[in-house]
Specification:
By secondary structure, the protein is of the alpha+beta class. Helices cover about 25% and strands about 45% of the residues.
Amino acid sequence: MRIKLNDAQVAALKAFLEASEDAEQLSAREYVVDLYDIERPISLDMVFVKGGIGVDGAAELKYDAEQDGWYMGERLDDADAVLDALAQAGAIER
């Protein structure tokens, strides 16, 4: 899915990803980030494109207390849910 972001949101998201220990830069424009500290934790694989981001993959993160670890839950196909998650994490202003 493609998500439109303005220039300020792109800059804020890049700064957030560069500062996050839960983000990994895969290439000059591609990042993977796990957002654990929000109401509905998610994992994102995103690429910066002109005018925003392309989300190659997004899924809920579920915690298994017995295994003491996180695992992928349902796939997310809703751009608003991704934007809400990024806003909750403090990565962008909505």
